[in-house]
Design goal:
By secondary structure, the protein is α/β, with parallel strands linked by helices. The chain has a domain at 2-7 and 259-383: Aspartate Aminotransferase, domain 1. 42% of the residues lie in helices and 13% in strands. A 7-stranded mixed β-sheet has the order 2-8-7-6-5-3-4, sandwiched between helices. The protein has a 3-stranded antiparallel β-sheet with strand order 9-10-12. The longest helix has 39 residues, at 242-280. The structure holds pyridoxal-5'-phosphate. Residues 68-70, 73, 101, 103, 149, 153, 178, 180-181, 201, 203, 212, 326 line the site of pyridoxal-5'-phosphate.
Amino acid sequence: MIFLDAAATTPVRREVLEAMWPYLTGEFGNPSSHHSLGDAAASALAGARAAAAKALGCRPGEVIFTSGGTEADNLAVKGIALARRAADPGLDRVVISAVEHPAVEESARYLERVHGFAVDVVPVDAFGRVTEEALAAVLGPETALVSIMYANNEVGTVQPVARLAALARARGIPFHTDAVQAAGWLPLDTAALGVDALSISGHKLGAPKGNGALFVKGRIRLEPVIHGGGQERGRRSGTENVAGAVALATALTLARTSRPESAARIAALRDDFIRAVLAEVPGAVLTGHPSQRLPSVASFCFPGTSGESVLLELERQGVICSSGSACAAGSDEPSPVLRAMGIDAEVAQTAVRFSFDSTITPAQLHEAAAAVRTAVGSVRALGQR
Ligand code: PLP
């Protein structure tokens, strides 16, 4: 099997499993307990927070551990917007891009539906990029928050986050970015990016599913979304997932050290794969930005097919990939991300995303490109639309 669906999830790395193991077994304490087992857990949690902060270029107190990317996005979007409006009732608009993950989009829609906010959606260009002009056009004195992702999960397009964040900062508006897909591949220094909040998720990085983190700059007020015992300095209640935090911090540290080498190497393999698919599959269209894209994502439309049929055919040939985001798998609706990029609904139904981690080999991608040619050819021949 050739696994080309790493943007959906990744296996747990051995180093990560070994780092978390003690906190699932002998050192199983609750970090809030006042005894030696609790103290050991609290110190493991503090160590994980310090390591995560180092990877994110922030202070340990600015890292909030969550149950994943979805919760981190919910906390950022709802938490910052609600806290800002509580301080100033005139701040009742949130800005998101047209290509956000549902974790951001649905959080904004919740603010609209339940709390009376207005949502301003910034359009993207044909490559899925938000331009500075497009963002500037929607910012106003009532904007409570801007949330624009670092890299897109369906087409891999990377946003000019530092420049977009600077625009918001110049107007005193907090800027959040969903870095769930970017975290393994792009620099995560929150100070250099100039962002006020940034979400990450463990399972895209070789840590287990169900853990993530939100960086929130110290001066930004945050209304909690989960209420309870006041853990995470009152910003996220619930007994901390100590082993999960250790896993996330270990995965982040590994990603930070290997990134410069692996990002360049994998980007070159990605480009070879894209060239091979475009050359060998008649009518194939690359989606997303040709160069400003994640090293790990190659996404296409294959007009005259159905993406789902191509996936099935590819799986028969031992290649596992997806039609877009794992969250939307099985949905009959064409991808809103592709629609926002101006791709018509019929062509958007033919989308296939290939995403890999740093263990992929040139031989595997060579084999996968040949499988794509065969799969698309047989779907077209059978008229499986
Ligand atoms: N944001 C993006 C861009 C994602 O790709 C995902 C997961 O696919 C999420 C958020 C949600 O993260 P999690 O699966 O940890 O809840």
